[in-house]
TrEMBL record:
It holds the Pfam family DDAH_eukar. SUPFAM superfamilies: Pentein (SSF55909). It comes from Winogradskya consettensis. This is Amidinotransferase. The lineage of its organism: Bacteria, Bacillati, Actinomycetota, Actinomycetes, Micromonosporales.
Length: 262
């Protein structure tokens, strides 16, 4: 995680960003700290990297890389405002956890567009494209990480990253909002995950799919109450955290958390 010490909305690179309303930086930092404490209270170790004043979106740590079994596929951001974040995340992976970091040539935005299910078909990556990550990055990820990659096309600009439209609930089960995907991608998802938890547009617009799950607890923002009840009905325990200020930048719980897979 990276604290929102310099978080602002001074430019708009997704439909959720409104530059006309100032960010309450104190509230953003307080909400972020509550999420961090929630994760540690649930027994998870949290590493915190330093925020950089020239990189206001660094709080969305999930976008910096994607790791599987100690190998890291480094991000290459689409927009120039975020390009510098990739190097900061690479330094963390190489110096703090001593993992192997590999950089591809294609634009990709880390866990924003990649999800991993270790027990599905022996370990499978779901990968989004359409707005940020290039389709060619899916092949790079497969070669670098040694796991099969299923490409999914996003078609609604409101859900510009995979992690706004789909989430892994445990090692083999997912939840997703079908209308965020092309019809062909929906068919693939229906075939692979017939028992998925299906979200509606209200759930997705509340960023209810931008969640973090440890297989039992599903951490999601307070606005996504209906989504919380859906995962509860499938045997998971929802844990709600207020992240309204950080949502103004186009992200919620998942965007703020990079999951480490050693």
């Amino acid at each position: 995680m990276c604290p929102p010490e310099h978080f602002t909305v001074d430019y708009a690179i997704n439909p959720w960003m409104d530059t006309s309303v100032p960010v309450d930086s104190g509230l953003a930092l307080k909400q972020w700290a509550i999420l961090r404490d929630t994760l540690t209270d649930l027994g998870h170790a949290v590493h915190v990297i330093d925020a950089k004043p020239e990189l206001p979106d660094m709080v969305y740590a999930a976008n910096g890389a994607f790791s599987v079994d100690g190998t890291v596929y480094g991000a290459r951001f689409r927009y120039p405002q975020r390009v510098g974040e990739a190097a900061e995340h690479r330094k963390f992976y190489e110096s703090t956890v001593n993992w192997t970091t590999k950089q591809g040539d294609s634009v990709n935005e880390g866990e924003g567009d990649f999800a991993y299910l270790p027990a599905a078909y022996g370990g499978m990556i779901l990968a989004g494209h359409g707005f940020r990550t290039e389709p060619a990055a899916h092949l790079e990820a497969q070669e670098i990480l040694g796991r099969p990659v299923i490409s999914l096309q996003l078609v609604d600009p409101a859900f510009y990253h995979l992690d706004t439209a789909l989430a892994a609930l445990d090692d083999r089960h997912i939840t997703y909002y079908p209308e965020a995907f092309s019809e062909a991608s929906r068919r693939v998802l229906r075939q692979l995950f017939p028992d998925a938890v299906i979200a509606d547009r209200g759930d997705a617009e509340a960023f209810g799919l931008n969640l973090v799950s440890d297989g039992r607890h599903v951490i999601l923002n307070t606005e996504a109450r209906a989504m919380g009840e859906k995962v509860r009905a499938h045997g998971y325990q929802p844990v709600h955290v207020e992240l309204g200020e950080l949502k103004r930048g186009g992200g919620s719980v998942k965007c703020v958390v990079a999951e480490l897979r050693g």
